[in-house]
Amino acid sequence: MSRPRSKKPSVEPGLVPAPGSLLDWRDSTHFDHWQDRPCVLCEQLTPMRSHSKEPVHKQCAEDWIAANPVEARLGRFASDTQPKIRHDDDHA
């Protein structure tokens, strides 16, 4: 008898920091230059967007991760993965 497959999360998980760690949202895709929207957590206006385009303050997302560590592992407010810097172009 096979197990039913679990439903895949609607958001592809990124690197979710451990509670107390900081999200890395340096990419400009986390900032809406045209419209502030209410944060999904505190309802105050913000130009910030999560990796899944939810309007959310970075601090609100970090507080939510600290309060909901199990749910956070599904990737709701994940950090973007940072490419590793390669140093193989040194021709010395």
Proportion of strand residues = under 5%
Strand arrangement in the largest pleated sheet = 1-2
Radius of gyration: 16 Å
* Termini gap: 60 Å
Order of helices and strands: EEHH
Give a verbal description of the structure.
The protein contains two helices and two strands. It has 92 residues and is mainly alpha-helical. The chain has a two-stranded antiparallel ribbon. Strand 1 (37-38) and strand 2 form a beta hairpin. 16% of the residues are buried.
List strands and helices in order, with pairings.
Elements: E1 37-38, E2 45-46, H1 58-67, H2 69-72
Antiparallel strand pairs: 1-2
Q: What structural keywords apply?
A:
92 residues, 2 helices, two-stranded antiparallel sheet, mainly alpha
Summarize the structure.
The protein is built from two helices and two strands, in the order ββαα. Strand 1 (37-38) and strand 2 (45-46) form a beta hairpin.
